TrEMBL record, chain A:
Membrane topology reported for the UniProt record: Multi-pass membrane protein
UniProt xrefs under InterPro entries: Cyt-d_oxidase_su2 (IPR003317)
Top-level taxonomy: Bacteria, Pseudomonadati, Pseudomonadota, Alphaproteobacteria, Hyphomicrobiales
Transmembrane spans: 12-37, 82-100, 112-137, 157-180, 192-211, 223-247, 259-281, 301-323
Subcellular location: Cell membrane
GO cellular component: cytochrome complex; plasma membrane
Annotated signal peptide: none
Keyword annotations: Cell membrane, Membrane, Transmembrane, Transmembrane helix
Molecular function terms from GO: electron transfer activity; oxidoreductase activity, acting on diphenols and related substances as donors, oxygen as acceptor
Gene for this chain: cydB
Similarity annotation: Belongs to the cytochrome ubiquinol oxidase subunit 2 family.
Pfam families given in the database record: Cyt_bd_oxida_II (PF02322)
Name assigned to this protein: Cytochrome d ubiquinol oxidase subunit II
From TrEMBL, chain B:
Family: Belongs to the cytochrome ubiquinol oxidase subunit 1 family.
Region (Disordered) location: 451-472
Membrane disposition: Multi-pass membrane protein
Name recorded for this polypeptide: Cytochrome ubiquinol oxidase subunit I
Amino acid sequence: MPIDLPTIWAGIIAFAVLAYVILDGFDLGVGILFPLFPHRRDRDIITNSIAPVWDGNETWLVLGGGGLMAVFPVVYATVLPALYMPIIAMLLGLIFRGVAFEFRHRTQRGSVWWDVGFWAGSTVAGFTQGIALGALVQGIDVADRSYVGGWWDWLTPFSLLTGLAVVVGYGLLGATWINLKTSGELQAHARRIAMFAGAGTLVLIGVVSLWTPFVRGIYFERWFGWPTAFFSAFVPALLGVCALGLWHGLITDKHLQPFLAALGLFVLSFVGLGISFYPYIVPGALTIAEAAAPDSSLQFLLVGAVILIPTILAYTGYAYWVFRGKIDPEEGYH
Amino acid sequence: MTFGMTAEILARIQFAFTVSFHFIFPAFSIGTASFLAVLNGLWLWKRDPAYLKLFEYWKTIFAVTFGMGVVSGIVMSYQFGTNWSVFSDRAGAVIGPLMGYEVLTAFFLEAGFLGIALFGRRRVGDTLHMVAVAMVAIGTLVSATWITSANSWMHTPAGYGIDANGIFYPEDWWAIIFNPSFPYRLTHTVLAAFLTTAFAVGAVGAWHLLKDSTNRQARIMFSMAMWMAAIVTPMQILVGDMHGLNTLEHQPAKIAAMEGHYESHEDGAPLILFGIPDDEAEETKYAIEIPKLGSLILTHEWDGAIEGLKAFPKEDRPPALIPFFTFRIMVGLGLLMLGMGMWSLWARYHKTLYTNRWLLRAALPMGGSGFVAVLAGWYTTEVGRQPYTVYGLLRTADSLSPVAAPAVGASLLAFVIVYFLVFGAGVFYLFRLFRRPPLEIEDMELEKGPTRAAGLVPGPAQEETLGGPNAH
């Protein structure tokens, strides 16, 4: 594995996407679970728990997209047309989700409609992100730097399954986040939801994992061929550890442990994907090396990324630190 | 769902529609973020509760606007790939990093500190809260800088090479970022954002002064807005003129379209005040002209030569009708803004700034003038860049994704429905916030610092009626 500019950038983009998935994942999860929290007071508390941070979480998605255009333009230019409809649906979902934070407080009569918008937007965004993932795993048809596949290629049983898996997984992240940030009856309710969502997530990870090696031959090679099997065996083993941590944390009523374990499930699934994809950035179509922009583009943006991404992580961490702890329902800081 | 149009036209309409909706929010939030930073600074410096009340008042409005700007902006960051994939593939290595820097230096800064700026005053204390508010304001300005640089490069490309596949590659980043039109466009855009906010704030202040001319908060906001209008409008007209000269140098066809000139004039072009440019007939019909004035404005000489559209091959000309009219709308509004600013100075001198009802009434319709002017200017420059996405180098027709018209038409329809629904509701809620008198915070609360972020607290939602004193 060469350590050159394109590989470094593939790592940075992968990091941005992972940061997006785990951070906005719990925001979207809170929205996905909205119908399970019918009381307005509870809804206010759980939206208040993510209100100060959701915008920063969503910015990782912009970095993923903008970064792709800058350092892997041909990937950006082929994957987005290939995923045209799911991407548009995701964007529309994110619009409803984003404005609902403010709008649900601006009206009494219309408030329930913005709650519906918050739920539907979050769910559509999660589902389409999962579909995009499944479609990418299947691979897309590229010829002469353009997408040459059909309009509905992204729609397969496999991509619908990955869509469902991501929705349930986000629901787990959301439930463990609520479990972390609330207390009393609300927390107990979130803990019960997390148990179901956790079981569902593990089952779906299992089904997707069993199916994936049969989607493309190269994955089978990676997973069961030597020497790569040595590395890919670590992933399920660590997944088991996280699953145990989740289960143990939930039955012993821990606050932070289930959330961290749920994040672990996502990080490991993501690492598994990375192992399967490499050296391709678009499976079966484009390798990291051939999709990269000229070195001067990679260098120019890398200087900024090396300085700025740690800085961003520092002040984002500070913002999380400021709003740490349980949400006090009586405190009106938002 | 193609509405009888080609994929290219539908994609252009989709881009124009989504970017127009997006643009009005940052145009307002760039100015409002700076306004909030100034208000918070004044509160910390003078400890006058009026400034804190104003901060809290505009903070809520800013939060609503900013949220709409964020979600409409995410659409933009993906639209280059969905509808304009060839453009992204060819120009991505040059303008992609500029947008990448926008995310790294601005978006994260704004988003990271927004939570603390809106809800964290009591948790972090005055100093760090001020830092957070300042960071949000700086973030908006840095964001404007990068995105204007990327857009300017599309108008006046520099510092690039083109390889055998027609793909742009960077040669000199300094030349790319500081391309010829960038300094003018950036200044013009940022001043426009400040004016947009000033006239919106002025209208809100005027509305409350008409109801109660003694309201201290309304007086302060109206006074600040009118200072901004009086000082910045003349600056903006000067910068606009310089920007026009720069455009004449680099994009003469755009100027010809804006001015409605089809014929070239070697010895002084007239200024066409009004007419209907007709690209087919290659003439501006019903033209009302002032001899020589066009050259005087554009070349600063009576007999300066101006090229007409006929000097360019037909396939390289921008359509003249839209830039011709949008340019006149922008300039007309600019002159009205100038008049408003001067009138306010006159009223200030006569000590009637808060009581001159005609001035206050005139400020109300001017509240939206900045938004209209910003969009009109944007259409002028973007339509004037046609038929190119990268001026003179990459045609719009060659930039399109391999998309089928029905897909673009369907997504356009979805965007139109969702945008009108969502942002229509948003604007409705904003007006509801504007109608609240700026007296929200009880003095009791001021002693221990504000605890409530209006509308963002658990508790009863706002009443449907005009907000009472306890509405949040």
